[in-house]
Amino acid sequence: MLLRLLPGDPANALISVGADEAQIAAARRQVGSDLPLAQQFLHFITSLARFDLGTSFVSRTSVLDEIMARLAVTVPLTLLSFLLAILIAAPLGIIAAVKANRWYGAAISVISQLGIAIPVFWVGILLVTVFAVNLRLFPSGGFPPQGWSAPFEALRALFLPIVTIAIVMSASLLRYVRSATQDVLGSDYLRTARAMGSGFGEALVRHGIRNGAVPVVSILGIELATTLLGAVVVERVFALPGLGSMLLLAIEQRDYPNIQGVLFISTLLVLLIGFLADLAQRLIDPRLRERSGDRP
Amino acid sequence: MTDLVDLQAPAPARRTPRSLTLSVGLVLVGLHLFVALLTLFWTPYDPTAMTGGRLEPPSWAHWAGTDRLGRDLFTQIMIGSRIALTVGAGAVAIAAAIGVTLGVLAAFATRTLDDVLAATFDILIAFPTLLLAMLVVAATDTASLFSAILALGIAISAIVARLTRILAKRVLAMDYITAARTAGSSWPSIVFRHVLPNIWPTLSVNFALQFGIAIIAEASLSYLGLGAPPPNASWGRLLQEAQGTVYTAPFGAVAPGIALVSLVIGMNLLADGLRDVGDPTRRRSR
Fold first, then answer.
1. Which fold has domain B19-38+73-285?
2. Which residues span the membrane (chain B) (predicted)?
């Protein structure tokens, strides 16, 4: 909302270079930038309450409709890469902690160190080079115009982007899984369980995973939100019509209703993810449920 | 600095000697620093001149090949080191100035002001650095190297501010602060004589980490076309151009990425090494 304070009149997006004063005034009236800022803000808040995000300055279409269409790309992209990242990071992170003294435990740690230093778009470009240019297995970018009514083509288009995000995401997740596992390994309850006769693997599975998962889940929430908002780069690499590319285009065109709309919806989604992560933590750990009464 | 670690009691059980982490980090960062300084006086070719055929593969004359205008890529990558280090240092300096000031202010402030500031930091941190930087870039009318540095500095400052606030509060709860207050020390003297020296080791480690994050974010901004405009050879822009010619000249996407990753890894290792040197309790266990 503060974005309206930025330099550059949004009406500029509507008019051509040689526009005269009357045309400029008409354009300003059309986008409402001739009104005082406070009035613009009030208008924005009241429309927001009706879930009306306005219409785009540039394409003259409903912002909410456009966002919904683009979420159909971004949400599956984010969730599928998230699941893949967990499938990669959870076993590898546990192995890296349990087998820290073996070469492969150390190797996993080194690879994850490498993974957090690699920018996501470079991974994307390299994957395109190998799998789209050389092997021709997947498209190098784009999304089928008919969308999810062509499910096979849609999944094929999303495959490389999903792998790209999952690689980078699992590298940082792995570190959290590893340190959570290390905490579990040093814990008294695991020693007790083993003293009572359960095998190492059994003790780890029965007591370790539930305890170790609690801090990891809160990290998962943050990572999921970051991926959702950070999809902008991957969407650019693979020319996907998602929420991130909408924001990028809107920033380039100074299309304020679109910028505000994307930020508003992303903030809602981030809050929702935070809430779900909190819920998941309480499901996993009963101690958090009992304490929840005195928490704000 | 490596001697500091070697003088400690022998720790044969450790997988990777900590001094190795620090040394590798110093070597990688030092190499980039050397190249960056070198480009101020000398580069293999004129970075803007056509010195070979278009999109030539790597050769002895052109170690990383040439771009679509026939300019030497290795020269541009070398200059990219300078841009990356400038952006990293500038962004961290701005983030430190804003973040440490606000963090210390919050730690000293009344309950209400502290709550407001802490909540603001938390909200800002929920958004990725890159997204915040994109919005700040959108706010400045023309993209320049400075606007990129400013955007990243502001975006990172929330992280620094939150860390500073937590660390400063911990120091302020110490008995020696109460003693200093009783003895009549003014608050500036407490800040500069007690708080800052105590939180500095942890902060500097975080600065090294943020340096790496700033470099990745700057490359991403440039890749998205929101970074420093063309005369500045940013690695992100080199990669974006390489992607355009990926069918005819796939090699162009390799070298700038390696340069970028080596500097970020160097910074991360440096941060790890510094933390272990600064904090004896972490040296033994991992």
1. MetI-like fold (1.10.3720)
2. 20-42, 83-109, 116-139, 145-164, 203-226, 246-265
Residue B72, beta-bridge partner list? B66
Compute the distance between CA of residue A218 and CA of residue A285 in angstroms, rounded to an integer: 12
How many whole angstroms separate alpha carbon A278 and alpha carbon A288? 10
Contact call for B216 and A114, based on CB within 8 A: no
CB A281 within 8 A of CB A217: yes
A106-148 per-position pLDDT tens digit: 777 778 878 888 888 888 888 888 877 777 777 767 777 766 7
Distance in Å, alpha carbon of B192 to nearest chain A alpha carbon? 34
- Total count of residues recorded for chain B: 286
Give B223's contacts in chain A (Cβ within 8 Å). 119, 121, 233, 236
pLDDT tens-digit readout, B189-240: 888 888 888 888 888 888 988 898 899 888 888 888 877 777 667 888 888 8
pTM above 0.80, yes or no: no
Cα Dmax for chain A: 87
Identify the residue among A5, A125, A265 best suited for mutation to test binding to B, counting B beta carbons within 10 A and taking the highest. Answer: A125
The angle formed by the CA atoms of residues A107, A109 and A113, to the nearest 5 degrees, is 115
Amino acid identity, position B204: S
A166 neighbors A88 (Cβ within 8 angstroms): yes
Could you give the dihedral angle defined by the CA atoms of residues B101, B107, B109 and B115, in that order, rounded to the nearest 10 degrees? 110
Residue extents of the structural domains in chain B = 19-38+73-285
Given an 8 Å threshold on Cβ–Cβ distance, is B224 in contact with A6? no
